[in-house]
Design brief:
Elements (H helix, E strand, L loop, with lengths): L8 H17 L3 H18 L2 H13 L14 H11 L4 H8 L3 H16 L11 H8 L15 E3 L5 E3 L39 H26 L5 H25 L1 H6 L5 H9 L10 H20 L15 E6 L2 E5 H8 L9 H22 L19 E6 L1 H4 L10 H20 L9 H26 L5 H11 L2 H6 L4 H10 L19 H5 L5 H23 L2
Antiparallel strand pairs: 1-2, 3-4, 3-5
């Protein structure tokens, strides 16, 4: 008969520690925390300092929650990654020091470190504090950063050096907004956007109203991004192609309808923003199409493997290296490192150099922010955004070995590059269904509808192209799922009749000439729905598109097996 555990506290605690370590390494961190906490408490009572430190390290690595954000919230490996990064090491150099893959350092540890330390995006490969100042506008005086006390850690030369303290979360200037689309302009008030309403003719008026709605939506989103950068990292990637589309197309339309205003709104990094907005078209881009999009993903996959595999110093451990990062929101796949590389036109090795990546993304974000700030300055834009319902703990990151992962998703008859392309479709639909569904602001309804419609239009068209080229190689289950998506009545409606002109108006803003006589600035959605879909009105098509987005997202999730 074994003696009671209480009689052998040290040995019992060592067993609990070993069990907790086993659970953590089996990636069941939540289960590991209980035995590890018991072991830590017992070691501290016994005065077994080395064992207590070991239990504490394991507990941190298992993701024990802290009372407040900061260094104490980091896991042991996260703390080491933060310290090495603060010394100026790249992700690849940090990975070698910690015997991890660069992918794990970039997409898991550093992604979680920056929000916990309260670091603004300038140092975290997301929009910078400078972008926030652009959004506040030239008249606003920037706030001074208020450092948050941080734990001191040994510096490079044995001195104590504090890790970067929190930079201030700059808030967009939203005092006394100048109403435009949803309010009256104050007397004698001039702004860059005032001339947006100077166009003549119903086509210009509809284009102006559509642009104003999209800019106000973008401004609300960016307001939330600046208020809380920690939970905005993944949404920024997810929304970048849509933001780029709105900026590029609105600027292009204004250059025709109002050249003077367009000149005052000129922005930098036009090529990068234009490239990002093209990703919305998927296989429908006339310059790329199915073949070139597939080739782009093939290059991204190959670069990722070259960058992230074969780096672990112990050869036998390389079988566990990963080269693909997944971003999930409430369990739904909303992004991968492959889709981010495609949308942002980034090389895989760029994910290893966080400072350089931060500078690149920060520069693009500044251009986007400056444009939206100036163009939406006269609008009554303040209000809730879908970002208000998003919390950091709703996101999850997973690391995959792409070679194994691609054998398990979609259909065996498809090449890897097509599976990666389908994953991009899946992510876009899940973003619209899982993240934007919580935007209940009536002022956002038209833009949310637009993003859903154009995404459905291009996903359906792209799936049709894929079925035409690879249909004979697909299994029966894949053919059935494709038929359920492509042959649904709403799918047919979205792509039939005047649907092409409707899609063109949503993207390019200016309606076709033959639609002009049917439009009115006082009608719901300006009469565009009735002009293109005679059996529909805006509320009914809006509801059908929202429901079909959820249906398509569920079918793509089912097909991918994830």
């Amino acid at each position: 008969m074994l003696p009671p555990a209480e009689e052998w506290p040290f040995d019992t605690s060592r067993i609990r520690l070993a069990w907790g370590e086993h659970l953590r390494r089996s990636r069941t961190g939540a289960d590991a925390r209980v035995p590890l906490q018991h072991a830590l408490t017992a070691f501290e009572k016994l005065g077994a300092v080395p064992w207590a430190r070991r239990a504490e390290r394991e507990l941190r690595a298992a993701g024990r929650a802290a009372d407040a954000p900061g260094i104490s919230a980091l896991t042991a490996q996260g703390f080491q990654a933060a310290h090495l990064t603060a010394q100026g090491l790249t992700s690849k150099e940090t990975a070698k020091r910690l015997t991890l893959s660069p992918c794990a350092v970039s997409t898991r540890h550093l992604y979680q470190i920056f929000p916990r330390l309260g670091i603004t995006p300038a140092s975290a490969a997301t929009p910078s504090a400078t972008a926030a100042r652009e959004l506040r506008g030239p008249s606003a005086s920037p706030r001074q950063p208020q450092p948050r006390a941080g734990r001191e850690t040994p510096g490079p030369a044995g001195r104590s050096a504090a890790l970067p303290a929190s930079l201030a979360r700059a808030r967009l200037q939203n005092s006394s907004p100048r109403p435009g689309r949803h309010g009256k302009k104050a007397p004698n008030q001039e702004s860059a956007g005032d001339s947006m309403s100077s166009g003549t003719g119903i086509k210009q008026d509809v284009a102006r109203l559509l642009i104003e709605g999209d800019l106000a939506f973008s401004r609300r989103f960016l307001e939330c991004v600046v208020e809380d950068t920690g939970r905005a990292v993944v949404p920024i990637f997810c929304m970048n192609s849509y933001l780029s589309l709105i900026i590029h197309e609105s600027y292009r339309t204004l250059k025709v309808n109002d050249p003077g205003l367009a000149a005052s709104l000129a922005y930098e990094h036009e090529e990068t923003i234009q490239r990002a907005r093209l990703s919305v078209k998927l296989f429908d881009d006339s310059k790329t199409g199915l073949g070139k999009v597939g080739d782009a993903f093939a290059r991204i996959i190959d670069e990722g493997r070259q960058a992230f595999l074969g780096n672990t110093w112990f050869p036998l451990a390389r079988r566990w290296e990963t080269d693909l990062g997944e971003y999930r929101y409430r369990g739904r796949l909303v992004g991968t490192t492959h889709t981010v590389g495609f949308v942002m036109a980034l090389r895989a090795d760029a994910l290893q150099d966080l400072p350089a990546l931060g500078q690149e993304l920060s520069a693009v974000a500044q251009a986007q922010s400056a444009y939206v700030s100036q163009a939406a300055g006269h609008l009554s834009w303040p209000g809730p955004s879908f970002m208000n319902s998003i919390t950091l703990d709703a996101f999850e990151l997973r690391d995959r070995r792409s070679e194994r992962h691609f054998t398990r998703i979609f259909d065996a008859g498809l090449p890897e590059k097509m599976k990666a392309s389908l994953t991009a479709f899946q992510c876009s639909l899940n973003v619209l269904d899982a993240m934007l569904r919580n935007d209940d602001n009536p002022a956002s309804a038209e833009t949310v509808f637009k993003l859903r419609y154009i995404t459905l239009y291009h996903v359906l068209s792209s799936l049709e192209k894929l079925r035409n080229q690879y249909g004979k190689a697909l299994g029966m289950a894949s053919r059935s799922l494709l038929a359920a998506m492509l042959d649904h009545p709403v799918s047919a409606e979205i792509r039939s009749g005047e649907a092409r002109h409707f899609r063109n108006t949503l993207i390019h803003y200016t309606p076709a000439e033959h639609l002009a006589s049917k439009l009115s600035t006082t009608a719901p959605y300006y009469g565009l729905v009735e002009a293109c879909f005679p059996t529909r009105d805006f509320p009914s098509l809006q509801a059908a598109v929202a429901e079909h987005t959820g249906r398509m997202a569920a079918l793509m999730d089912q097909w991918s097996g994830t």
